[in-house]
Amino acid sequence: MNVQPLVPLALPRGRPLHCELCGGLAQLRCGACGVTYYCDVDHQKADWDSIHEKICQLLIPIRTSLPFFNSEKERKHGMEQLLHRQKHVIDLTHKVAQKFVFEGKHEQAIPAALHSLRFSINICGPDSMELVPAYLILAEASTGLGHLTQADDYLSQAQWIVLKTSDCNNGIQSKLHRNLGLLYAAKGNFEEALYHLAIDIYFASCAFGTHDISTSGGYFHMANVFFHQNKMDIADSLYTEVTDIWHAYFSRLIQVQSQTLTSPAEINILSEEVEISEEPLNEAQQAEASQVLNAILDIREQAPRQQPAKTASVAHALAMLHYLILDLPKAHEFVVKAFLISQQLPDQEASEVIHHLFKLIKSKSFSTK
């Protein structure tokens, strides 16, 4: 981090400079890019730790005045480049903010989400649907921090845009109602929370399918509400559904990965068992899977009535997750846990599948040495 105090006499006249985070009067600027301003060191550090380190140099061509162009063609090309850079920053800041939210790092998510919101406003205007994802992340982060009034404000902005947009897609509707469910759950209004989470699951199912990882978040948060209401049977069935969705998804990814390592002559191109189009996990999905599955594993292990089959399934899913992201020590830790638990079960089919993953992890560990 490199910060410089502002010299009033060196500032351009009539151009007020404001803090990147709070909008207050700026006293400092980033010494690395020279185009980002802060009211104090605390806000500069918060922005750096969240997102500024990643976008510091990207902001220079965006926030520096465009040069004089000799022709309309050059001017158009310059504006296209500027728009492309701004869209790249929106995408990057959104992904970083979403990852922080899934990791439970709500305070760090907010500066990144604010960047995403501001750039979206600059490009699309204050009433565009493109602003909704940033508002939703800001709302979820604020809810996580216990700033419920602020979360309410962000959700009101998002809801207003959605309500006056006739062609709002199901994915956005799902995320909006999931955030409303989380907010009401944080307020202790569990019935209203369940209502919005049910709508979340409906829209997510329409957009992605009932057994997709994008839908699983709604099941997970609904299970948490039932858990807090001490309705353990319903919570248990929903936690099982979430585990099964991620377990099946990771199994498909590993199967696809295994096929890509097989010689083309050995691949049955007519096989419908494996979806070759399956996309690899992005960082936000990795963080979400880790947060959700570790939470479920803790609940399973601390439950008064142990269910070894379900606990083994969660541990197996976590082992597959860490195998896929090449965190092999963690993958080994979870696969051993899953295997030991599965030994208690009368049906040894699960043990065989887990043992196969153990061999894959051992082989990958050997090949990376």
Helix-strand topology string: EEEHHHHHHHHHHHHHH
Task: Summarize the amount of helix as a percent range.
Answer: 55-70%
The helix tally amounts to 14
N-to-C terminal Cα separation, in Å?
Answer: 35 Å
For the sheet with most strands, the description reads: 3 strands, antiparallel
- Unreliable runs, pLDDT <50, ≥5 residues? 265-277
Mean pLDDT across all amino acids = 89
Please tell me what the overall shape is.
globular
Major β-sheet strand ordering: 1-2-3
Structural class: mainly alpha
What Rg is obtained from the alpha carbons, in whole angstroms?
24 Å
Number of strands: 3
β-strand amount: under 5%
Topology (elements, then pairings):
Layout: E1 3-5, E2 28-30, E3 37-38, H1 41-55, H2 59-63, H3 72-102, H4 106-124, H5 132-144, H6 148-163, H7 170-187, H8 190-208, H9 213-228, H10 232-260, H11 283-302, H12 308-324, H13 328-342, H14 349-367
Antiparallel strand pairs: 1-2, 2-3
